[in-house]
Fold each of these.
Amino acid sequence: MVAAILLLVLGLVAAAGTLNAARPSTRWWAILPSWLAAWVTVELAAQLILASTVAAAVLVALGALDHAVGIAGLVLLVTADGAGAVGAMHAQLSRRALRDLLTELDPEPDPPRFPRSHVVLPFLMLRPRGVVRERGVAFAREPSGRPIRLDVYRPAAEAAGPRPAIVQVHGGAWVVGSRAEQGIPLLNHLAANGWVGVNIDYRMSPFATWPDHVVDVKRAIAWVREHAGELGVDPGFVAITGGSAGGHLTALAALTAGDRSLQPGFEDADTTVQAAVPFYGVYDLLDERRVHLPLLHSWILEPLVFKARRAEHPERFRDASPTHRVHRDAPPFLVIHGTRDSLVPPADARGFVERLRSVSEAPVVYAELRGAQHAFDLIPSPRTAPIAEAIERFLHTIRVRSRERQLV
């Protein structure tokens, strides 16, 4: 009977996870645990199916099906795993969708492969082959004198010439997070294929007040150019990427190169970027379409980040919104969002892309990934792999085009 009860519990947990993933809660007390449970269910679907199948087989061997509750548990588990298998299939289909998006832009053959061993054993991303990491490099200082640091990812092999660079900006609602846990799969893949990546920290709220966050991002871009020689970097091609709050900062930094108000003390530094790849970002801090979770503004942006009310100082929120800073000379963009993002709805990304495409003369590619949750790229996964490959192809193609224009 114990085996039957355990099988029922396993089935109930799996069914609850599937239902939550299909409709995550937006109630204030459940938003984060509901998102985390949905992320695990959606982005680790293959691993969960394997683990639950093994556990169910053991319980069946112990006689779980001798009782009705065990049979009910197995039915629930099979149903939940079936739904999970559909989600895993959507992750695999990401490769085809991304390839189709980039076909016109990138006529070259298939991109370098993301290591599938990392998908099976995600911890391998901590010791990637062919990549050298330098940790804790100070690139700026807070007013208190405390250093702000970054990690450098570069190919282990010697370079024939300067390499392109990319700045990675972590997320965390502008108040938490660090370079230590975000952007690692992508930076490993890019470094293994000839890029120099810098994974940066920046000042965070409530100790920092807007625009401190984006000022630090711009300092990092300027630092990469200032140290291009020792990094082996081509100062003529620096890209930027990041997710969530990092996606917002990525897009804003890319659109505000040379904005002296956001570069105090380094007003004349070159903070242009040649390409931007924001993930599941926040683009309209005014929220004109009313698509954001209300708590984003009432709990985070107003009291912690801006320390001002949006209704009283709309110009501050507008100036901080990539959607309201688009212009014809914007760099090429690849914007990525998931259809099941329960923290930042994809409607925000669609509105940003629509405005950017209406004015920008550069390519603007939008990839909306079916079934993907917020922060889908935290670890190597069946979805992360094709995304990293597509980003490498996008950036490679933009760089090739840039070099061709320079030769004309």
Amino acid sequence: MERICAITTGRWDYSHLYWILKDMQNSNEIDLTIIAAGNHHCIKEIVEEFGLKSLLMAPSIENIDGYGQFYSYILSILKVYNPDIFLCLGDRYEVHAAATAACLLNIPIAHIHGGEETKGSFDNELRNSITMMSTYHFTANKRFSDRICNMKGNMYYEIGTKASNIYTVGAPGLDWINRSTLKYIDELKKEIAIDFTKPYVIGSFNPVTKELEEIEYQVIEWIAAFNAFDMQTIIILPNIDPGNKKIIDIIFNCKFTKHTCIVENVNHLTYLSLMKHADLMVGNSSSGIIEAASLKLPVVNIGTRQEGRIMPPNVVNCGYDRESILKAMNSAIVLHSHKVYENPYGDGQSSRRIVKILEDFI
């Protein structure tokens, strides 16, 4: 059996890896081990789904100061376990630390969601670095595959062949929409304190790590737009990128004039269910770019954090000032509300494709 070790550091990557991990767990040709960060939001879920025998715990990593310790610990784990393939997803600094450890041990890396661009964040450089360290690449769109091909000097190889090791499979986060039953409003009422008989907007704003000096202005303008918009709001608190604590402080110290529910942590199924029933999403989360089109949800994408990604037609881009945000919110509601768009990030069948390709490496 092929020994594959996958890394997950929080809900941000576990939600996208989940169906890949489930399909590997059910494969007769793959022996799966999962490394999880100690402060992972979903440890209980991972244990319930995959069992303690499949789980290796790494230290907690709460900010960039923990990069070195996390790298060192992953290095020691991989030296002992020595998998055939190390699987990782995305562009976070924790994942970069783990991928660096695998690279220095000459363990082939399979990377998901490479070839993309997010110009407003240092994730861009981290993602490209992981791409250059990786042997196998699973991308969400052919444009991303082409970019990896050029980055690695494989421009004469045909994408999707073993010669290039670059495969366009779609975004695995979309698999939830095809492979699970999203929650009904009666279920969501038990978890989220808003009136689901009335329209609501989801707000999610993460740090723009190349513009940290502008965080206060950006978040205050974002909240001001909600206050000027006639709709109740669900605020999803940000990830653990540098600057997140400042955003959280501003959110809890600002006055909301409309009914607002602030949510610290929800599982991915609940999150997608909230998106399905919402009337609008406003912020700078990648979920607004990747998943929202498949849920017929109009999105206002603020600022530069997601600049460089392929934007589905349900997305309206705008600047950071409240007037631009409010104008975009009204436009998105009028132009895009609950229309069906083809999603450039795939058809929700990515996980099975990835696992079948991994099985073929044996």
Amino acid sequence: MPDETSRAAPRVAVVGSGYVGTVVAACLAFLGRQVIGVETDPHKLCELSRGCSPFYEPGLSDLLVGALGSGRLRFVGDVGDALAHSEALFLCVGTPPGDGGHADMSSVREAAASIGRELRTPHVLITKSTVPIGSGHWLRSLLEDAYEGSTPLEDILSVVSCPEFLREGSAIADFLTPERVVLGSDSGSALELVREVYRPILEQSFVGGDPDRCPALIQTGLLSAETVKYASNAFLATKISFINEIAMICEFVGADVVEVATAIGLDSRIGPRFLDAGAGWGGSCFGKDLQELISTAMDYGHDPRLLQAVTEVNHRQRQVVVEKLRRHLKTMRGRRICIMGLAFKPGTDDLRDAPALDVARWRVAAGASVRAHDPMVGAVAEIPEMRTLPDMYEAARGTDAVVMMTEWPDYVGIDADALLSVMRGRLMVDGRNMFNPETMVRRGFVYEGVGRSPLGDPYGGLELNRGFDQRVEIGNLEGRVA
């Protein structure tokens, strides 16, 4: 990358080294920016300084090692040090679920107080944390309360909202090659500085970038930018809950939801992504952000019925998996069950709000013996009764049922005959619709998908006529998004 890019760009500090902050710091350093990451936990600070990522994200450890080795990235425990050597300050601390449906803003409050006390030179504060709508103005008030400098705060600080759209498992690509960059502020000069920080991304001028696919730049006010993040996640969650509602109807009438979803996804107004019926969404974002948006609406006296229904349908889907087990196995007491996949989606080791954990917890409570396998997850401390094994076939040995809960590639390529040979029973509950029902029944399984026809498509697949002979094999589609 050109040296002049590094010299011309604003120096960057990143407060918070969780999932978002670590990715932002490593990626900006890769782009040639001088970056200081702030982490107050001594152990975590030590690990980051050695290039060890605190969580699993494909490619991140290599990116950290390269950025540290180049001298463009370093981590410190003192926000004052970071402020003294930066102009752009990214706020990336956690905002977990709090009381009353709103996000817990205690970490944001603490970070703002620390920044306010140490601020002496002009900065643009860029909120990457997913914060409640209106937090940009609230942050300015917090900073004013803590500020101890002599120069009026309004002369040296501006706030810009730049919501993150990082998906676990593909966060680096999402940051470097996004579909859009959203910037919200009431200050033109602040927006100009952040645009300069993002220039290699906006122009796709870095090594590996694609200048023919530059992201859209959306510039708006603070409140609109903060709303974009919540609205985006709410829509994606709605799309998943919608197809899960259709899946239930498919089960009643004998239709196949994979065939239905494939057909409606070909409509350009709808699109195929996030139309995967199954056990529902999980993770740290959708549930928290939906609840925050619902709570915000109710604070203003509005009853957001659609958003509430989206959440209710999603919680029901976990119970749908349990009901399929109960219908076939009757009593759970003494039954042995294997859960394949614990992370809420493939490509991550994140267990936050993972549907698989609810299924495991409920079956343990009902008296079942539960084993599990996941390529990235070991023992789960919150469910000590569940035994995790490193080999998927050993995890399934002697079990009455196997429940597929995460679409790991390891499972898509599983040896069905070998799996069945080690099981005591024959039941497979496919909570992610990874397999063709007819194929699995032919292999000897009692197969239960979500919204699937018991025997699959009698014609062997869904046929598309696009002017030439093309067939799409239903039930073996790759690249599903959880």
